[in-house]
Recover the amino acids of this structure.
C-alpha cells in the first residue's frame, strides 16, 4: 500500500516536470523566432508597452482646395481661419469673400506696418507680398456672396428701428452720416469700400470699437474713427447686429 502511494507521488512529480520542460521549450522557440504572444512578457526581457500614437493633424484645406478653380496655393493658410471660399469661420476669422481687391491689399499692408493689430495676422501678414498677395486678393475678391436685394436710399422715410435709422439716415444732429452713404445700399459695398451686409456680428462690433478707441487707424482722413467715436456702445452693438443679419429670411 505504501509502495503504491509512493509510486503515484513520484509519477505525478515526473509528469509535472515534463510539462514544465515542454513549456520552457515552447517559450524558447517563441523567443528565438520572435513570435511572442501579444502582451506576454518574454523570458529575461522587461515588458515594454507600445507607446501611444498621436494622429497627424488633418489638412483638409489642401485637398479640398484642389477642387476650386483658381485657388492659389498661398491662400491655403488663409483658409484655416477664413474658409476655403473666404466665407469666414465663427470665432476664427471674418468673411473675406467679395472684399475689393485694393481694399484687401491695403488691410494686409496695415497688419504689416502695425496700423492694424492681430496676433495671428501680425505674423502671417508679413509672409506674403507682391504677386502672391495679388493672387490671394484676386481670389477672395472674386468669391460668390449671398444675394441680397438692396434697399435703396429714400425708398423709406420713417424708421422705427434705431439701427436701421442710423444705417439709412444717420443722425445729423451729431454730424453722423448714414452708413449707406459710403458702404452702399444695404451695406453691400461701394467701389473700394467694403461690404458690411452678412459680415460676422462680432467682427463688425470689434472693428467699430477699434475705430472708436483708436486701435485701428487704416481709414483715410480718420473718417471711420470720427464716426465711431460719436457712436455709443449700444448703437455699435445694434448696427453690428443689423448688418450681420440683413437680408436673411425672417430678419430685416
Amino acid at each position: 500500500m505504501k509502495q503504491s502511494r509512493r509510486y503515484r507521488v513520484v509519477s505525478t512529480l515526473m509528469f509535472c516536470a515534463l510539462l514544465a520542460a515542454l513549456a520552457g521549450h515552447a517559450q524558447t522557440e517563441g523567443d528565438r523566432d520572435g513570435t511572442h504572444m501579444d502582451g506576454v512578457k518574454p523570458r529575461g526581457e522587461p515588458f515594454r508597452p507600445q507607446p501611444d500614437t498621436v494622429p497627424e493633424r488633418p489638412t483638409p484645406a489642401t485637398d479640398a482646395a484642389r477642387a476650386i478653380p483658381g485657388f492659389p496655393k498661398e491662400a491655403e493658410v488663409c483658409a484655416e481661419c477664413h474658409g476655403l471660399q473666404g466665407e469666414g469661420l465663427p470665432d476664427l476669422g471674418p468673411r473675406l469673400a467679395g472684399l475689393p481687391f485694393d481694399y484687401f491689399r491695403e488691410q494686409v499692408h496695415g497688419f504689416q506696418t502695425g496700423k492694424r493689430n492681430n496676433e495671428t495676422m501680425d505674423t502671417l501678414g508679413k509672409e506674403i507680398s507682391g504677386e502672391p498677395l495679388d493672387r490671394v486678393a484676386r481670389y477672395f475678391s472674386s468669391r460668390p456672396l449671398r444675394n441680397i436685394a438692396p434697399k435703396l436710399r429714400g425708398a423709406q422715410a420713417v424708421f422705427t428701428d434705431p439701427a436701421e435709422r442710423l444705417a439709412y439716415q444717420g443722425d445729423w444732429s451729431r454730424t453722423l452720416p448714414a452708413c449707406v452713404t459710403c458702404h452702399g445700399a444695404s451695406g453691400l459695398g461701394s467701389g473700394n469700400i467694403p461690404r458690411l451686409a452678412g459680415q460676422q456680428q462680432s467682427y463688425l462690433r470689434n472693428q467699430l470699437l477699434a475705430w472708436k478707441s483708436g486701435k485701428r487707424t487704416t481709414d483715410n482722413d480718420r473718417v471711420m474713427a470720427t464716426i465711431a467715436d460719436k457712436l455709443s456702445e449700444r448703437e455699435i452693438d445694434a448696427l453690428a447686429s443689423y448688418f450681420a443679419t440683413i437680408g436673411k429670411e425672417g430678419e430685416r
In short: DSSP finds eleven helices and no strands in the chain. The chain has two domains: 59-145, 148-247. The domain at 59-145 is CATH 1.10.760.10 (Cytochrome Bc1 Complex; Chain D, domain 2).
